[in-house]
Amino acid sequence: MTETNSDSKWNSLEAEFRAQRLPDADVAASRFPVIPNVNPASEEDHAAAMEELAFGVRFGDYMAVADWSVEDGWHDRRVVPFGPLQLSPAAAVLHYSQEIFEGLKAFRWADGSIWTFRPGFNAARLNHSARRMAMPEIPLDDFIGSLVQMVRMDERWVPGVPNSSLYLRPFMIADEEFVGVRPAHHYKYVAIASPVGPYFKGGMSGVSIWVSTDFNRAAPGGTGDAKTGGNYASSLLPQRLAAEKGFEQVCYLDAETNTNLEELGGMNVFVVKKDGSVLTPRLTGTLLEGGTRSAIIQLLADRGIEVDQATIPLAWLVKAIEGGEVVEMFACGTAAIVTPIARLAGDGFDVTLDGDEVTGQILEELGGIQRGTIPDRHGWMYQLV
Ligand code: COI
After folding, report:
1. Which of 49, 236, 325, 385 could form a disulfide with 320 if both were Cys (CB 3.0 to 4.6 A apart)?
2. What Å distances lie between residue 283 and 21, 56, 171, CA to CA?
3. pLDDT tens digit string along 81-104?
């Protein structure tokens, strides 16, 4: 059934991440001088936002910014009041979508300290995306420094209630005023922060997934393994059509054969068999290599479960769920963390899954590491404050 390639050339980010040494937080932060916000959110406004914690609707008082030009490289690093960017209507990003982004979270621990999870992985992936989109790479120290300094200034926006965090969204855009088609000569890097609760309102009750055979997310040679806005833009129509049918997320199949599982619109996916073995779609260059995905592969390996990174045919999966061979599925990502999949449907099938034993164990362990209640034996956590 499966064709395993866990050591293929596509598993590159994890290796890059493991080879890194992260900078000292104070030294990295000092690269981003602060311009104080003289008009921050009022106490009442802040309290209301921290009460709501809806995903991605409220933002902190600060943002980190840096500019890049052909002549000067990266320059003018700063942390400034959160606010609108000044952009020419001719900025290249508005026409040709030369844009990349990342997602991380800052967690408040019981002792008041604030930590983030594997930021070096996100740095490696941002630069991987930059190479694919013909954009400049950003030095690790700048990436980390921007996040440390912003979170230090936005400390009051890091929630402390269970299942909450400050979601960090670093991104880079081509802001050169030019509408010819070529890589831009000027870019802006920005990081913003949003206090959030769970991505899915239903939490552990499970999400419903529509498997699309009408749309593909990415094709071989395309941008599927880059975190670029276009991949998400193209997922919006399938997402809307699925929502009209009552589903929360769309699962995509490979564009070559339209038969094998790839990933959800913004999350990786895992399959748990009755015998305790676990599968996840292998990286083929059309999937995004997730930092949560590779952490889960490691946590399962620690439990003696070697995840089979495999080709997973939809037809096999549906039969295996119906026949009881597959008992759990879950989605994972920075925003989703680990979320059980309760229903999988598409043209001609509609199956339900009610198991969540492995899913629950992994969520508990990963969540515990991120919140400082379970020892961080792999050195994944990085202290911001
Ligand atoms: C993330 O998990 O950080 C993402 O970028 C995915 C998106 C669905 C929010």
Report:
1. 325
2. 25, 28, 23
3. 999 999 999 999 999 999 999 999
Quick one: pLDDT band at residue 8, thresholds 50, 70, 90? low
**How much is the pLDDT for 334?**
97
**Alpha carbon distance 229, 33 (integer Å):** 29
For ligand 1, atom 6, name the residue with the nearest CA: 266
Structure tokens given for 163? 């299942």
Measuring from each residue's beta carbon to the nearest atom of ligand 1, which residues come in under 6 Å? Answer: 103, 266, 333-335
Q: Which of 126, 334, 338, 339 to mutate to test the pocket of ligand 1 (most atoms within 8 A of CB)?
A: 334
Query: In 3-state terms, the chain is what percent helix, strand and coil (to 5)?
Result: 30, 30, 45
Pocket test for ligand 1, best of 171, 199, 252 (most atoms within 8 A of CB): 199
Distance from residue 336's CA to the centre of ligand 1 (Å)? 7
Confidence of residue 14 (pLDDT cuts 50, 70, 90): confident
Distance in Å, CA 322 to ligand 1 centroid: 30
Beta partners for residue 114, in sequence order: 108
Read off the pLDDT of residues 311-354 as tens digits, 9 standing for 90 and up: 999 999 999 999 999 999 999 999 999 999 999 999 999 999 99
Phi, psi of 48 (to 5 degrees): -65, -40
pLDDT at 9: 65
Instruction: Give me 283's structure tokens.
Output: 């990286």
Please give the model's pTM, rounded to 2 decimal places. Answer: 0.96
Q: Which domains are present in the chain?
A: 15-196 (3.30.470.10), 202-370 (3.20.10.10)
User: Regarding beta strands 186-196 and 326-333, do their DSSP bridges make them parallel or antiparallel, or are they unpaired?
Assistant: unpaired
Report which of 155, 151, 175 is spatially closest to residue 96, judged by C-alpha positions.
175
